[in-house]
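Bug: token stream looks shifted between consecutive jobs. Job 1:
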Amino acid sequence: MTTIHDDLTNIRNQYEEIQSVKVSLALFGQPGAGKSSLINCLVGKNVAEVGTKNDITQEASSHEWNGLYLVDLPGYGTKMFPADTYLEKFDVLSFDFFLCVFSGTRLKEDDIDFFKKLREIGKYCLFVCNQVDRLWQEDRTLDEIKADIVNNIEEQVGIKEPIYFTSCRHKDGLDKLTEGIYDLLGDIDSAKQEMWAKSAKAYSQKSLEEKKRACEKFVAIAAGTSAVNGFNPVPGVDIAVDVGILVRLNKQLKDYYGLTDEGLKAIEMAVPTIAPIVKNLVQYVATDGVLFLLKKYAGMVAVQQFSKWIPLVGQIIAPSVGFGLTMAVGSACLNDCHKIAEAILQKELEKMNK
């Protein structure tokens, strides 16, 4: 028979496991192909310095953001980094997958060699033809140029691989690339796939929905932890919950959706109808706001609606009033984050299509 101790242990273990998940990806390829810009686009934040120099990378450059670990690797098989010591020096086996980033119509020989080595050791790699906005040949369409690139890569690496065509400048193709990475991680580890969905920038409605599903699971586990910890009773309500966990949860949701203070102000001005939702979100990430919301939802929560989370949080915790209350607050924050992100995505798509 399940006990409160069993449920509590299960919830805490899941919460710690979710918080510890890391998605590690390494980018390699020719200098000047825009790897730093691509890293920034994938996370939706300027974590990598972007410059105009095309110097050969002298060392690995790593960047972390919300469970994502992205590394720009130096050239493989060079005098400075010979092939026989490269895998060990840069701990290649530790990465979940790789992006081979190039511009132009063909790969360099060292990139081909490294891809083949990755394939030999069973590592996943996606090809990204970046800076697609610079592709031009007289009397040829872009589709014809792309078809040639696909054929060239197949000829060079000896196997037909999908090629993702992207432009960081115009944000072209990033929707297909981020969705492709999501699908790839599904073959590697479902927890890593969920972390990617939560933390990577969404460039399509499909990716936003994947983000929401992953965040719903995270909210349920965090809410269960908050309810069973019960450090502090909510003023005016005879229920004890861990308000600190809820505050951290709501801040994490805001980060997962890439909602900065500057971005919130901008969308509020661009879409005035979103202003009340933005105001709500500002409340959600402050302790006083969370306390207000807990009191607001007290007595209004139908606990039965959260019964679907029993497999995650346990037979005792899921039907409890404390869980229902904290779940309601976390879900309200998540829903508002999602609505704001949808409005921002719509504005971005409108800008791209002009």
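Job 2, same session, no restart:
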Amino acid sequence: MSIKSDFDTANKQRQTVLDRLRACAAFTIPWVLPNDDIAETDEILQPYQALGAQGVENLVGKLLVSLFPTGTPWWSSRPSAEARAGDLPPDVLEAFANHLAARDLLIEGKLDSTNYRMAQRSALEQIIVLGNSMTRLTSDYQTRGYRPDQYVQRRIAGKMVWLIVAEAADVLMLNDETLAKAALSRTDFEGKPIGERIKTIYTQAERQSDDRWVMTQELNEHEVQTSEEPSCPFFACGYREIPGESWSRGFVEARLGDLRSFNGLARAIVDLTVAAARCVPVADPRHGWKASDLTRPNGVVVLGKVEGSIPHGVGFLQSNKAQDISVAQHISDQIEKRLGKAFLLETFAQPEGERVTAAQIMRIARELEGALGGVYAHIADEIQKPFLARFIWQMEKDNLLPAMPETVQRGQRVTILTGIEALRRQAELERLLGAMQILSSIPGALEKLKFDVIAERILRYLGVETTNLIKTPEELQAEIEANAQQLLQTEAGKKAIETIGNVAEKAAVA
């Protein structure tokens, strides 16, 4: 069977999934996943409320700031615990740490020159709205996103094992080798409109038993490229994994009932308001009024029956639906409050500016972890770590980064500094500082603590590399002895000066 036939088979099986995801998009951001029959130039029906879209944008913005902050590295490569506990001399360990820090700077510089933050924003948007996202790191270090109707996937025990992505490509943009393998001729498509030059390329990624990936591309039902790679260039992430299902459930799907009700009430309130605002005059001809009298310009005298400055036989059509509007508005306000709380719209404002402080990132992370319930660890495992590993492997393959031997690689540890890791460090730091504050009120308690160990932990929780930074007991003892020696020399000098002064004074007196 061809990859295309596998894609078509899996595509038919997941149509109910797409219908569910499109319902989630319809009440939030419809263009995240439009219907199959809607072209790019067609108008997409918009919901009657913008609360869903506003809530999604609020969550996505906060997630992006806390996971991929601008101007702040979101990972760090450091010597592993095994390396620090080994027999390496301090100067060698410090040189290794400096080498890893220099590598991180090279990676960060290359990463910041790409579009990955913009692509990750779209991926986070799909995770919140649709519950599923798929991105790819291309050979030119750009990040490309896909909608769920452009790929099929299989998960076993929460692990991605197989996926196929369908991409449209212009035949004239492909190289001659690819066209030859696909049994296509460039001359057959030259001069034709763009619509007739578009072909679909199917890319299949399949995980092997040793966690390596076999990548296969197919065009015109011919295999045009195959490779085996240590990591997958595709990064799939879901919001909430369901055992036995290959597609995750999303944040919006859990609130779909309130969103659907709120949208219906918003439409009803608009319709009732329009009906109540209609101004349709009514004239009774028995009192001398004519229809044309109600459309006369200002200042024109109209003849009709008037008593006490009030014209008789003239009125306006009324819907008398004010009570219905108030009931619908009351229910709508209750749902809006629940949705606003779920989407974190009632909390502090999103920080602005090129740089966001660590305190702001921590505050956002703490709020999101409480609202989204453990999404950080999942995103770190399925997006951040695999994406960074693939990016580093690709830079080493292209000789943009010096490759490290496998034995040296085992001596390093890559730590994600944002998300759940940042929350853990902040919680440990707060507990340590709280304990010290309590102990400070107990006489003699602080004297029993090892302040060199406390200082090392505080620096580590703050993200400061402590290798060769804190003085060893031997260095402290040497400093004490040096200070004592200097003090003795100073005292000896003072005594010598006093002695010379006394001698001079006695000589002057004599």
